[in-house]
Amino acid sequence: MDPLFDRFGRLVAWLRGDNIFDPEMNWVAFRSSGNLFSRTSVAWLGPVDGDTIYDRKGRPVALTDGATPDRRDTPVPPPRPASPLMPQRPLATTQHRRPTRPIPVNAPWSDLSWSQYVNQR
Question: Which residues are CB-neighbours of 60 under 8 A, at least 6 positions away?
Answer without folding.
Answer: 7, 52, 53, 54, 69, 105, 107, 109, 110
